[in-house]
Batch of 2 targets.
Target 1
Amino acid sequence: MLEVQDLHVSYGQVDAVRGVTLTLEPGQIVSVIGPNGAGKTTLLAAAMGLLPSKGGLRFEGQDLHGLDVEARVERGLCLVPEKRELFGELTVQDNLMLGGFPRKLRGAALKRQMDFVCDRFPRLGERRSQRADTLSGGERQMLALGRALMSSPRLLMLDEPSLGLAPLIVQEILAFVRGLRDEGVSILLVEQNARAALDSSDHGYVLETGEIALSGASAELAVDPRVQATYLGGA
Ligand code: ATP
């Protein structure tokens, strides 16, 4: 579904992603774990078209180079950024509506999609008319996910959904993400929380200083001594 082949992304002189090759099959959760500054956010930004990149980048067989962000959303890609990027002064409902904007949802179609998302996240439904900045951290992450779902993505890219959340809330968010996978949405999950990411994904990649250091089935990576020593606290 997503094929990344020898991808390079630079910020001027800084080579942040250096020859990354990665594959995501339909219906999979693929995680990318690695330390601060490894290039995880940069990889997602390049896949979404927010940064220029060199190398192979294909989605459902189609070359993504040359497609802008909007065209990538139309094809079914969606990114939930690390900082959630919600509009705090707008209501939950208005934030969701903005998620439907790239798909040009209006009228009955917009209402249907909004009801669908609020059914999935009852807490968002209850807080529809509340300002986004009154939500808890977990609810904000749910709103960011709900807003992404407004564009009916086929590949959802999540940048550190666990960031700043209590362990129980992280479990709740990841259970939801697995539910989406089971309904056929493919997920590229970037996480510093290696344990949570490997527990929830089918396949994993370890990114270090812009390069893939290790990859494999998540269950195998979770017992790999190198992953255990560096990312799982030697557990
Ligand atoms: P984090 O978890 O901290 O977000 P990350 O794995 O997502 O880390 P990136 O944010 O992709 O890593 O950063 C990769 C490298 O690119 C780092 O060396 C970082 O300093 C550098 N970098 C990131 N953004 C910029 C920028 N706008 N300009 C210059 N260098 C940048």
Target 2
Amino acid sequence: KQMRHHRLTLLMQLVPYGNKQKLLISRDITSYERIDAMRRDFIANVSHELRTPLTVISGYLEMLSAESEIDLEMQRHALTAMTEQAARMQHLVEDLLTLSRLENTLNKLNESSVDIASILRELRTEAESLSGGRHTIHLGIDSEDQILGSREELRSAFGNLVSNAIRYTPEGGEINIHWEVKDGKGMFYVRDTGMGIEPEHIPRLTERFYRVDNSRSRQTGGTGLGLAIVKHILNRHQARLKINSEVGKGSEFCIQFPEKRLISKQ
Ligand code: ADP
């Protein structure tokens, strides 16, 4: 039996207990409470992410102002560390602003016919510079079909997947970027020969601040918001994200666009 009282749902159930039965009363967290808990979690995460770089910066500033003679090497070290941490905060704030813009339902999609092939060519150049020659990058364009959507948003979603592939693939690995139309669907793939992801993490990757490997994410400048941003952009385009991965072998991230978003150029 289910009893509803305001925002609280009580579940009552008779369960076997030896040769008798006992009454089990449990409380279901309603969606309102769940959303409130998620909001609190989010604020706690943001605060934590900002506090860490701020602690480093204020630590060095304190040291620089307290000591009268600091050798040049130490000064340089302090400046480099502070610059890195400031960049990290900047990156985080930019991603937060992007997320809040995407979450605002009043913010309509700025649609046009988007040339996916041209985005991919731009991304290859960007990927090569990000990789710094440590990976082999392949580009495959099997369709000239375009997508009805926002160029800026699609470029950002694809770019996020490509930069992840590079960041989570060790030196010497391969990255494949591919665009094709199959069974009436537009398919964008990024495949890497990187570290891979264990299956239990896959359904949670698009949650804000969810990371499998905290230290690798931070070392490579990750904010933990990239895939959350990708998910929002895809929702706005009625597109889906499919992830296949094998630990130690690599991952495949595939974006599928529905037929109604395709603009055929053949
Ligand atoms: P981050 O800034 O931490 O990279 P993302 O939201 O982009 O945040 O990704 C979430 C997590 O998913 C990452 O921390 C990483 O653990 C995992 N991940 C994403 N892409 C890959 C990939 N290509 N290979 C392995 N792990 C990945």
